[in-house]
Amino acid sequence: MPIKQIGCCGAYCKTCHPFKDGACIGCKPGYDTGERDISKAKCKIKICCIKREYNTCADCPEINSCPTINEFYSKNGYKYGKYKQATQFIKENGYIEFLNIADNWTNAYGKYK
């Protein structure tokens, strides 16, 4: 389950209050079991990631040229840059190292050692 707690975009869902309270199930759980139907999803990032069976966009070899994820990362707001930093970190260091760091965060993003 830990990798499923990382959003397709790089957000660390495990720290999100709605996720912890059960009000949000995150962007990935349920698609692998058929409980959720990807054809009803609205997030283009999630649709692409789930259909290609990637854990996150960090697994995509086209991430640097992808207009969908890069448009998301270029939005105004600090968090979007942090989500991009997360996918870059995962791509360079792997999921285990990311989870070791992210488990100490209190938000959907945080600092890297």
Give the distance, in angstroms, between the N- and C-terminal Cα atoms. Answer: 24 Å
- Assembly status: single chain
Average of pLDDT: 92
Sheet with the most strands? none
H-E string: HHHHH
- Taken as a percent bin, the fraction of beta residues is under 5%
Total domain modules: 1
Spatial shape: globular
Give the count of helical stretches.
5
- Could you give the count of β-strands? 0
Please estimate the helix content.
25-40%
Report the radius of gyration as a whole number of Å. 13 Å
Secondary structure category: mainly alpha
Unreliable stretches (pLDDT < 50, length at least 5) are none
List the topology elements.
Blueprint: H1 17-21, H2 44-51, H3 67-73, H4 78-93, H5 95-102
Helix pairs in contact: 4-5
Protein name: DUF3795 domain-containing protein
Describe this structure in words.
This protein is 39% helix and 0% strand. The chain is an all-alpha fold and 113 residues long. It has one domain. Helix 4 crosses helix 5. 22% of the residues are buried. The model has no long low-confidence stretch (mean pLDDT 92). This is DUF3795 domain-containing protein. It comes from Methanolobus mangrovi.
